[in-house]
Amino acid sequence: MLRRWEARTGLVLGRGHKPGVQLRAHATAAEFPSLGDDESYRLTVSSREVRLEAQTTWGVLRGLATLEQCLHAGPRGWFLPALAIADRPRFPWRGVLIDVCRHWQPLESLKRQLEAMALAKLNVLHLHLTEDQGFRIESRLYPRLHELGSDGEYFRQEEIRELVRFAADRGIRVVPEFDVPGHTTSWLVGHPELGSAPGPYAIRRHWGVAEAALDPTNEQVYVLLAGFLGEMAEIFPDTCVHIGGDEVKAAHWSGNERIQRFIRQHNLGDNRGLQAYFNQRVSEILGRLGRHMAGWDEVLHPRLSAGTLVQSWRGVAGLDEATKMGCAALLSNGYYLDLWWPAARHYEVDPVPAGTTLTPDQQKLILGGEAAMWTEWTSAERLDGALWPRAAAVAERLWSPREVRDVGRLYARLPGFSARLEDLGLLHEKNRDAMLRRFAGDTAGASTVAALQTVAALFEPVKNYGRNLAQADANQFQPLTGFADFLRVESDEARGFGAAVETLLHDRPKVADIERLIGKMTAWRTAAKALPALLTASGRSHEIIPAAKVLGQACDIGLRALDLLLTRHTGTRAWRQRNLATIDQICRPLGHVELPLERPLKLLVTAASLPRPSGVKARAAWATELLAAARIRGLAAAPVYEQWL
Ligand code: ACM
User: Fewer CB within 10 Å, N- or C-terminus of the chain?
Assistant: First the structure.
């Protein structure tokens, strides 16, 4: 931390001098962190000293993460504000899931995410290691698993040991997930004899849910799992092992007469009963290894082994059902960062919201939650930007009291947090910039790059898995280097514009404010109109034309509305209706991207076409009228589970 502060301040800090920072842990922690460790700390900064005290070294690490964010520059130099903080987490399980299968995420990428997680006081890295699209961990007992299932992109066991140690040094647990019995195509490439249909199998290259499934009636499946999980227990010290269990299509079970006979002979009822039987067998294997089992909410079943941790991704109902059965539970529904929602929307999701219907005993079983980053659309180059800084919003929800939920303050603090992430070596800004310049091409001059930056700053990746619809033939080999791939997930520029419009319309519009917005939109329009021609030499200008076109249209509409407001003219009702309809068109998903300007554009058009209020009372009524007339659709509803398949 002191080295990073040196880089920021240009000062030499604590080299051979007493730095004036006292760290005290009452007990040294175990070699690896575990669930329920005391992470509390007390931090005081006075004019004389910085003192950080904690029960455990894990608590000291959490306090350091706070202290690291307290250094500020002011007119009189660098300072730490005087403060006294007594802090502890609300939930003991604050995780990030990273899917290293759909797109490979190498060791150095994961180490960067661990650095960022530590700064956000996140304490579990959930590694999704096996999938239809890749088997990403070395098995010495069953080498055909990774050799035939991974295209050579997998973690060697030594790399996992290194990763687990690196994580532990930051107070972070690593929980592996081996997704069974569905999502197992890559296992069956080398071991087709374990499948429920004859095979042969090939690594799945496109997205969606495959039908391949392990055969729960085949004893060899449990022999392999016992061997493989035993090996994994040697390299993953955490007592929790996630077995996935999600999205078992069961078509291969239904289509296999021998499997259906097994279900009848063992009174398992149906395919779900067969999965419950399978889960019990796996749970017994894990129990013998001193591990307990976690699974996605599909593992819920009357015969689920007690002590299973249930991770709810399909909805909050899973939390209710799991905790009613006495199982501990985690929330991930609402924290799927690959839906590309704004930070604020994830921030609002609470594992135990104020109006919860869970009983106090059920509430105690909610351990926390996990942000999830599935990587169908996220290469290693993009990973940092896909996760950060938005994952910090989930981190704060899981650490801080429920009442800490001011979205304005969240956004005010995110840029500083993002800068600290860069100090730690995160590439969310650097890679985006490099990807943009690569897209612009070798011969692009500064003005071309600037125009592309201006346009890119206003778009966001299409939300709610709309890209799966836009590109149904997508596969694992396609480079993720297009326009959508170097956008900020959340456009600061659009959000800033939206806030300026709200302020403008809150009261009687001020000329200077209108002129500022006109200046902005004029610059956007200039860039949007010039960009396609500027990019002709890049070979990729066709990818930008639709976006540039809708941005140009958006600016035409916005500028006309601003002009009416400035000159105190009023647009007609027909003009308003026409433009509201156009805004609906241009702000809806456009292939891989969308323009998040619906609300401010509609507000401007509506304000420019309603009679101006005079007097305080009229202005209050105007705000209501304005919103009603603007017909804002707002954020699309979350997709329901069935639509995701
Ligand atoms: C999941 O997203 N299928 C757990």
Answer: C
Residue 644: inside a domain, yes or no? no
Examine the domain organization and report whether 75 and 113 are in the same domain: no
> What are the residues whose beta carbons fall under 8 Å from the beta carbon of 287, sequence distance 6 or more?
none
Closest-CA residue, ligand 1 atom 3, reads 246
The answer to whether the peptide bond before residue 342 is cis (omega within 30 degrees of 0) is: no
Mean pLDDT in order along the chain per 10 residues (645 residues): 94 78 87 97 94 96 97 95 98 98 98 98 98 98 98 98 98 98 98 97 95 98 98 98 96 96 98 98 98 97 94 94 97 97 97 96 98 98 98 98 97 97 98 97 95 98 91 92 97 96 83 96 98 93 95 98 95 97 96 96 96 80 88 78 56
Say how far apart CA 623 and CA 608 lie, in whole Å: 13
Alpha-carbon span 441 to 436, nearest angstrom: 9
Per-residue b/e over 153-172, b at no fewer than 16 CB within 10 Å?
A: ebbebebbeebbebbbebbb
Question: Which among 374, 640, 641, 645 is the best mutation to test ligand 1's pocket, defined by most ligand atoms within 8 Å of the CB?
Answer: 374
| Enclosing domain of residue 62 | 2-87
| Same domain for 58 and 159 | no
Spacing, Cα 397 to ligand 1 middle (Å): 21
Distance 168 CA to ligand 1 centre (A): 26
Structural contact between residues 532 and 541, judged by C-beta atoms closer than 8 angstroms:
yes
pTM exceeding the 0.85 threshold for the entire prediction:
yes
| Domain total of the chain | 3
Q: Which of 38, 72, 87 is the last residue of a domain?
A: 87
C-alpha of residue 313 to centroid of ligand 1, in Å: 6
